[in-house]
Design goal:
Length: about 160
Amino acid sequence: MAAGSIDAFDTWEPHVANAKKALGEGAVLLDTKGLYSETFNIVVTRPYLEANPTIVSKFLAALIEAEGWVKAHPNEAIDIVAAATGMKRDELAPIWSDYVYHVRLDDKLLETLKTHAAWRLATGNHPPGAGIPDFSKVIVAAPLKALDPARVTLSANP
């Protein structure tokens, strides 16, 4: 990149900040607000869920509690995330508001999963015989809904 052997690349932090440092004035960032989002999904097998509903519930409750703490203590959260990722605090702080920390099941997640599955099919990046999964058969909303029904806003609730 610094040698000029590539024209463009797509990446995430802290690599964006590192690229800006390496390229200086030569760095051109594209505004992707509203175009891209990354989700972090909690996945367990159905047998695990059925055998450990209390653990799953407590884990989700801990995530909700952590979400509240991050929102209530942004400066401390920035310090912790910067230290954990090796990113400088002064580079993370200005982009902190770009990140949305929210435990939820919603149509945006479902659409993201469907879009990703369609892309894999279109590009041939899938197992033989694969098709678009029926996500309503694999997304289990009940544990989160039991904790906080407002966090589950799927149009077709699984």
